[in-house]
Amino acid sequence: MSGSSITIAAKDGGSFSAYLARPAGGAPAPAIVVIQEIFGVNAVMRGVADWLAGEGYVAIVPDLFWRIEPGIDITDQSKAEWDRAFQLFGAFDRDKGIIDIDATRAVAATLPGTNGKVGAVGYCLGGHMAYRTAAETAVDATVGYYGVGINDVLHLAPGIRKPLMLHVAEKDGFVPPEAQAKIADGLGGNPLVTIHTYLGQDHAFARIGGAHYDQASADLANRRTLDFFAAHLG
């Protein structure tokens, strides 16, 4: 596999970059859009794309903060970076973010070496956007890790017409129990939606190097994610 950068035309003018990771071998493969956390297209997100490429997928990570500032690439290792990340989180236009994710999906479906199937996976802010991607785009299968604020946009749930899997951290400091209950109630009746709860885990339990990283839970969630994509993107 190898990583490179491509440029995607925005539907409302302008363009943005995306990190692209391809699997080894020449057989047509499904594509997966990787939806960033609040730290931009950083080493963690590029690592997710490389992991998925290693599992046989064409992975593409769009720069969703480009309308605020292109090329954000920070970590979760300092207070200054956390302050900047929350500033970006507050400034991010989620409606335009969905437009950019859908533009990425359309490009991913037609990239050389792909088979036309496109999934999506997102983390944190990206987990929220993954839910919206499932509800508002033609993506074929979507996974969200510890999405924040899904309980505030459950009115979009009728738009979910393709499989969606959500990984929920039971002790998520950003998604309290009442929000988790609301999500379960709002989505539990949809047979296309699968919700996994990770007992005792806090937000970002799958972020390697993060304060709440838990390898056992991350490995379980990642295995479920790969099985899910294998079932729905094959």
UniProtKB/TrEMBL annotation:
Looking up InterPro entries in the UniProt record yields: AB_hydrolase_fold, Dienelactn_hydro, Dienelactone_hydrolase-like
Recorded hits in Pfam families, A to Z, give: DLH
Domain Dienelactone hydrolase intervals: 16-232
The protein, known as = Carboxymethylenebutenolidase
- Gene3D superfamilies in the cross-refs: alpha/beta hydrolase
Q: Which organism is it from?
A: Zavarzinia compransoris
Gene Ontology terms, MF aspect: hydrolase activity
